Amino acid sequence: IMTVATGVPVARAAVVPGVQAGAQALPDRSYLDAVDPGCSHHVAMTGSDANPGTSPAQAWGTIGKAIRTLQSGESACVHAGTYSETGAATGHDGTRTDPIVIRGAPGESRPVVNVPVDDPLISVTRGYWVVENLEVDKNGTDDNAVRVDAGHHVMLRNLAVHNGRGTAALVTFNGAHDVTIDGNEIYDFRR
Fold first, then answer.
1. How far, in Å, CA of 74 to CA of 99, rounded?
2. What is the pTM for the complete model shown?
3. Can you spell out the DSSP letters for 32-67?
4. Cα diameter, the chain
5. In 3D, which of 90, 96, 88, 71 has the Cα closest to residue 153?
6. Are 74 and 100 within 8 A, CB to CB?
7. In this predicted model, what pLDDT tens digit does every residue of 3-27 receive, in sequence order?
């Protein structure tokens, strides 16, 4: 089909109610009912990765420590501030009844995470993870901001992702499934 005004082909796609673009079925999001709204662990600008991370006074100093360390049912609240991170892969699986959560601390300004390397902030390679309420600034570097690489049952929610040169800001591949990408703001991300 051509448009009358420009002669340019118009893309047409089949629309199936209730199924997201590119998906064959809606992702399983039943695990989201089990997400703990609290903070079992903390990341703060004044923290140290040598700390246990179990209180704001004993917070970890990097988000990477949280990504590698959190266990099933645990959550890390990242307190307001500007962090510089080099990226990490998830270290453990959550479960349907005890997902793992990394989020900006409730009631605080969204933390800003600068990623000055050609790697994603987080590579979700495990199951039952929620990443929410963070601002990810790729500082003009290549690669994705968040990558779901063979992970499953993952929610990427309310992220602000910008200033990158990768092929995509948020990406799934290598058999990743049941991934929900919801309410994110992506801008100034180009090849």
1. 7
2. 0.86
3. GGG--SS-SEEE-TT--TTS--SSGGG-BS-HHHHH
4. 65
5. 96
6. yes
7. 444 454 444 444 455 655 566 788 9
